[in-house]
Write a structure and sequence with these properties.
The complex is a heterodimer of chains A (424) and B (318). With 424 residues, chain A is of the alpha+beta class. Chain A folds into 2 domains: 28-139 and 303-371, D-Maltodextrin-Binding Protein, domain 2 (3-Layer(aba) Sandwich), CATH 3.40.190.10; 144-299 and 384-422, 3-Layer(aba) Sandwich (D-Maltodextrin-Binding Protein, domain 2), CATH 3.40.190.10. Helix content of chain A is 50%, strand content 11%. Chain A has a 5-stranded mixed sheet. In chain A, strands 9-8-10 form a 3-stranded antiparallel sheet. The longest helix of chain A has 22 residues, at 2-23. In chain A, 44% of the residues are buried. Chain B is mainly alpha-helical. Chain B has a domain at 70-131 and 186-317: MetI-like (MetI-like fold, Orthogonal Bundle). Chain B is 75% helix and 1% strand. A two-stranded antiparallel sheet of chain B has the order 1-2. The longest helix of chain B is centred in the N-terminal third of the chain and has 40 residues, at 17-56. The termini of chain B are far apart. The chains are: A alpha+beta (424), B mainly alpha (318). The interface between A and B is medium-sized, with 30 and 26 residues.
Chain lengths: 424, 318
């Protein structure tokens, strides 16, 4: 009898201590950092509040800034070994940061189920993958788009192009618009020099950068020469805007298409919401032109940005929990409302669909269309990319100002770009 | 009890050499206290970072990983392969050696106008100084962009006067972009103007009177009296302004940001890009130290030549 009592007491004690252990969860503070506009800050803050309600033992300290300041700050924090637990990453920087050991491989969390990828297609995840390691979770998908003003096309008597249009159609339509309306067809090449050239390279099944990131990935300068020549011709004809006119565009509101001074403008697809709001009239979205005998689709679906976990974070489990909440929770995504791009979870997408505005439906539909006319994304840009990007803009400017011929410029680009990449 | 005896001695009024020295030391101490804020700032935010950057200039440092010693590799890359280094140096020399003489000439011209006693001259002096107060600000840089922009004020003025047919991109044309920065620099003539004003007032009126009696024209007394008497001031202004010309950054970043194709890539702008956009802090540090040497050499040359053209009254009197 006594033994039974003793056993009972011990049992009660054990249960009591265990439950008190479970109840007294450790207080955790997570630092989360992102860049973006005011709209993004407001939405993200609201989701953070929702998360804190759901998990009262986690307190979140948000840090946010505009794009430029953000990267200055992250670099300083990285140098001080003081990175936020969760921070937004971009295709341009993810290779640099992961190669310096600043990012946690998230694969184990996917395998353990802490990061639920049930409703997420592999293609949506692969953008954050480097050498088989998952360094960032895509927060929304984007594709390059040519946004056009249907009213201007109608006025010029030009049928808006379909997804099968080619570079030849591009030039032809551009000339017609210029002839009929007297304004440029577009401010510049689709996606500006870098993206336009990458588009051309991809259509030839070539890489911009060699896989090791130490040199350019293509051998023939003719492609760049031709593209520069095309742009020069089109600028001289007035089909594309001059550099002086382009320089006047400092914000979305100044975009030539919005002010009626051009018929199209290129953007990333998530910008359609803001562009339509600024233009205050319905706009069309179309994929970039194809090449006549293209080997491969030039267009690709790009992760608009990632959430990554700092390798130095002491609270990796909580950090992963936050990311999981951010991408999978329907309530959270109703607040975020695809502001970072189309959500990667198909389940979230379905749940959001009835709530979407016309412009957002247009964006979702465009992404579906783009997915049918795209091929896999190139590997993330190597650490020398910001410098190479400036270089290609410089040689473009030299050609447009007549300071260099397209062939000379292409040759100089190869020489300097390889030097930059080699020295990284 | 030494303290008591000390007290007693001082009470006796015997304070020759030793206490006097003590007093002087106390004076020094007070001086150090007064300059402490500056001294602290000088050591903490100037000297120590400078030494650090000297060290970094021999390393590869991408901020994200620890600095790695590479010896002279940065300097080798800069001198042998970096065309933007030569380009930015060229741009900076052009900028400094065009804008500084223009600015000094303009400042001297206005100082001569403003030194004459006439009604409201104090107000004019203040008004003319105003651009220098906010000329370095971001707001003025943004205004400059508007002024010289394709749809800017200058173009509409020229077109309404019938001097131009179509808009011209002053900021994007390789021929004119640097000039927009030079004009902004000339416009900030305030501080050399004030120094010239003070210098002009120092010239004894008797010299001009004597010249007038001898029948010198206004131009003659300007070239034979004003300019020689002002040479120490011109020298001082020239050195100070050349150094600040080499450090031009903010407005260049906002107005042209180096474009078109690096025609306005001022040296500091390039250093900034290397360091903060490309994460090459070691390389940027090496660039910065090269600039220090370049500015040092230029200053030394100006000093060396000064004995040929700077006129010091005191020395003549020796």
């Amino acid at each position: 009898m006594r033994k039974l009592w003793l056993a009972l007491v011990i049992c009660v004690l054990l249960i009591a201590t265990m439950s008190s252990l479970v109840g007294a969860q450790e207080e955790i503070t997570l630092r989360i950092s992102w860049w973006g506009s005011q709209e993004r800050h407001d939405r993200t803050m609201a989701v953070i509040e929702l998360f804190e309600e759901r998990y009262p033992h986690i307190t979140i300290e948000p840090e946010f800034a505009g794009w430029g300041d953000y990267w200055d700050r992250i670099a300083t924090q990285a140098a001080g070994r003081n990175l936020p637990d969760v921070y937004q990453q971009d295709m341009q920087y993810i290779d640099l940061y992961s190669s310096r050991g600043m990012l946690e491989d998230l694969n184990p969390y996917v395998e353990s189920g802490a990061l639920d990828t049930t409703y997420i297609a592999d293609a949506e995840i692969s953008g954050g993958m480097i050498d088989g390691k998952l360094f960032g979770i895509n927060l929304g998908s984007n594709a390059l788009v040519a946004i056009y003003d249907p009213a201007m096309f109608a006025q010029a008597g030009v049928e808006p192009p379909g997804p099968e249009w080619t570079w030849d159609d591009y030039v032809e339509i551009g000339r017609k618009i210029k002839a009929e309306l007297g304004v440029p067809f577009a401010p510049g090449l689709p996606g500006n020099m870098f993206h336009a050239f990458q588009h051309v390279l991809r259509q030839n099944d070539l890489l911009f950068y060699a896989p090791d990131g130490k040199s350019l990935g293509f051998d023939d300068d003719q492609l760049l020469t031709d593209l520069l020549q095309l742009e020069l011709d089109l600028v001289n004809e007035g089909v594309l805007a001059t550099p002086a006119v382009r320089d006047e565009v400092n914000s979305l509101e100044d975009e030539l298409m919005i002010t009626g001074d051009a018929a199209t403008v290129w953007h990333w697809s998530n910008a359609i919401v803001a562009v339509t709001a600024a233009a205050d009239r319905p706009l069309g979205m179309i994929t970039l032109p194809k090449a006549k005998d293209q080997v491969r689709e030039g267009l690709y679906i790009k992760p608009s940005m990632f959430f990554s976990v700092a390798e130095s974070s002491p609270n990796k489990d909580a950090a992963v929990m936050f990311i999981d909440f951010f991408i999978n929770d329907v309530e959270a995504n109703k607040i975020l409302f695809a502001e970072r791009g189309v959500p990667i979870s198909s389940y979230v997408r379905e749940e959001l669909e009835p709530l979407l505005t016309d412009v957002q439906i247009q964006m979702f539909n465009y992404l579906d269309l783009a997915a049918q006319h795209s091929s896999a994304i190139d590997p993330p840009e190597p650490p020398g990319h910001p410098e190479v990007l400036r270089l290609i803009e410089d040689i473009e400017s030299m050609v447009l100002h007549g300071a260099s011929t397209p062939a000379e410029a292409a040759k100089m680009f190869r020489q300097e770009a390889n030097r930059i990449l080699r020295s990284q | 009890m030494p303290s008591l005896t000390g007290l007693a001695r001082s009470k006796n009024g015997a304070r020759p050499a030793k206490p006097y020295r003590k007093l002087r030391q106390q004076n020094n101490f007070a001086g150090y206290v007064f300059i402490f804020p500056w001294l602290f700032g000088f050591l903490a935010v100037t000297i120590i970072p400078m030494l650090l950057s000297l060290y970094l200039s021999f390393t590869r440092y991408d901020i994200l990983s620890p600095a790695r010693w590479v010896g002279l590799q940065n300097f080798e890359n800069i001198f042998l392969y970096d065309y933007l280094f030569t380009q930015s140096l060229k741009v900076t020399f052009r900028y400094a050696f065009i804008s500084v003489p223009l600015r000094l000439a303009f400042a001297l011209f206005l100082a001569i106008l403003l030194v004459q006693p006439r009604r409201g001259v104090g107000l004019y002096r203040t008004l003319f100084y105003v651009p220098s107060v906010f000329g370095g600000s971001i707001a003025v840089a943004v205004m400059w962009r508007q002024l010289f922009g394709t749809n800017g004020a200058l173009n509409s003025l020229l077109m309404s006067l019938g001097l131009m047919e179509t808009n011209f991109g002053w900021l994007t044309s390789p021929q004119t972009a640097l000039w927009t920065l030079i004009i902004l620099a000339v416009w900030q003539f305030g501080s050399p103007m004030l120094i010239f004003l003070a210098g002009l007032k120092q010239i004894p009126a008797s010299l001009y009177e004597a010249a007038m009696i001898d029948g010198a024209s206004g131009w003659q007394s300007f070239t034979r009296i004003t300019i020689p008497m002002l040479t120490p001031i011109i020298f001082f202004n020239f050195v100070v302004q050349i150094i600040s010309g080499f450090m031009m950054f903010t407005q260049a970043l906002v107005i042209t940001n180096g474009g078109p194709f690096n025609r306005t890539l001022l040296y500091i702008l390039y250093v900034f890009r290397k360091g903060f956009t490309d994460y090459s802090m070691g390389y940027a540090s090496a660039l910065a130290w090269i600039l220090l040497l370049v500015v040092g050499v230029i200053t030394a040359v100006v000093f060396k030549t000064s004995s040929y053209w700077v006129f010091y009254e005191a020395r003549e009197g020796e």
